[in-house]
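Recap from last week: sequence in, structure out.
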Amino acid sequence: MYKIRYNNVPSDISCGGVVMHNNNLTVNLYFKQLNDYHDISGMITIQDIQPYHSYAIVLDVGGKSKNFRQTYYSDFKVLDLNRLGSSIKMDFGEIALLYSPLQVAQVDTGVWSGDTHDMTITMLHGAYNSLTVPDNFIIESYDSTQDSKTKNVRTDLWDGYSITIDGVEQYRDRHNKTFIDGDNHVDITDKEYINVHIQKYHGEAKQKLNRECDNEEVFIDCSCGVVDTKRVRLDHGEGDFKIFHFGFTGDVTLKLGRKFYDTWNDYTLIFQKSK
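Predicted structure tokens:
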């Protein structure tokens, strides 16, 4: 599913186009006036689009951009927010403002495997329906003054992962919001390791995802002992790994995430021994 959303608050005079080719996205933009700037134009290309990623298109007046090894002048540039945010752990919007005084658009992707592609382009500036887009794009509008009252686009695009231990399932996000409230106490008595089963879910909904395209790698980080693998390749939305706890008892933090975004689901477990 491809979607483009236009902000119905600004009245910028603009035009341009969007082109998808293989795994590459090219966006051409022209603004007759954009805040205090006049006749702003340029092209950006996102090469080899990654799943569960966010990209920002920001203003870079008089700058240069790169397109398939070719460097050209462009008043816009693209930022890979996942890569930039993996080290400094800042809000994506704040990261964009570190590199530019103005963000023009944001591109968010969800699952991106085989013929299944989910992507939403959110235009922060530009008139409604001012860009030429492929026929398979859904066109919508939104009110940026109501953003604080609505769900973030990534909430619907970025799927999550539940864990099941000893037949007890729990599903929580990185903010400790609970969707499936399972008991987080884990009995390690006479167990060399704890087996953890992963189940992929759609966003905040309790909808299991077990499609062929649900085959991404889930990155594992555990504060206790050793896990038998740091990366679990899902098979139809499911996977397993083991935690070798070495007899540790107490609070354990278990994080499930993705490359360049290591914490999407955050679990606090309590390892204990029965008397």
